Amino acid sequence: MKKRVALLYGGTSSEHEVSRLGYEYVKELIDRSDYEPLPVYIDISGEWHITLRGKDLAAYPTGREGGSLYTDYGFIKIDAAIPLLHGAGGEDGSVQGALEIAHIPYVGARVSESAVCLDKAYAKAVASSLGIPTLGCVYLTKSESVDEALRRTKETVGLPAFIKPARLGSSVGAYPVNTEDEFTKLYPLAREAANGPVMVESLLTDKRELECAFCEINGKKLITPPGEILIEGFYGYGEKYGGKTETRAVADVDGEIRDRLIGYSRLLGESLGLRHLARLDFFLSGEEIYFNEINTFPGFTRESLYPKMLLAAGIDLKKALSSFIEDAIRDRPI
Known about the structure:
Elements: E1 3-10, H1 16-29, E2 35-42, E3 48-52, E4 55-58, E5 60-62, E6 68-71, E7 74-77, E8 80-84, H2 94-101, H3 111-118, H4 120-129, E9 137-140, H5 146-156, E10 161-165, E11 175-177, H6 180-194, E12 198-202, E13 208-217, E14 220-223, E15 227-230, H7 237-241, E16 246-248, H8 255-272, E17 277-285, E18 288-295, H9 305-312, H10 317-330
Parallel strand pairs: 1-2, 1-8
Antiparallel strand pairs: 2-3, 3-4, 5-6, 6-7, 9-12, 10-11, 10-12, 13-14, 13-15, 13-17, 15-16, 17-18
Helix pairs in contact: 5-6
């Protein structure tokens, strides 16, 4: 009998549309001989929907029958879930917690690991504690005024700087700023997008953006050689998902740099308890490497670098997804 796998997509964050694109790709990749995919759409307000018998129905995760979704037509048994969600409500541990309470096994990082990795400042603190270089930053709460944020930024990292929401991805609400006037104009936009804390980092003007893929297959945790984002200037949302960016699945770096990146990624993966899949991002400036951030459910669209890095490393995407699902079922929440 095929195992029913709920593909959760959409979500409440500003990365809603990115999640939709990832869902379309994963839906094609999942092995239909072993699994029955069940699309579960989470709308921007947080309501869960499935379509049965031509009707759009509300769905609610529940622990009945060992993990199921409750609908107007009764309980639908769920063998596993893939939360194809990003940012708040997706990678922050909240949907993972809902699935754990409902006893539904799921792919990806657990609750606490998801929460720590999503918050860029927390992840940087872990990296720094492990001896991995990071850029200077200041952590700003919603309650701080623009003037106070600017004062703290100038005292801590100076200008130019880079503003970004602490708990979002896909470069939503992220801006490079060079002057006080730019800061005053753009900081409120970042804060509005974040709906939470904002980070301001030192700005590297001469850098390369390198990424390693973490992948756990049949119990073996792998780190791919780094890939690279090939772009001049700021790698924003439009560049990531508008077909405007060239990527290289295997970056042209010397062996010493490659080994350091893989070593840092492996150390972070072990220390943060990564599971199944993740992407670890770094900056390279000259010979200096700086940790940037971790995505515990990286973009999985046709344009995303993560699946391209797996393919370049000889990893079959369909088999990888099957391994993630089977491991989640074996390691199901109690």
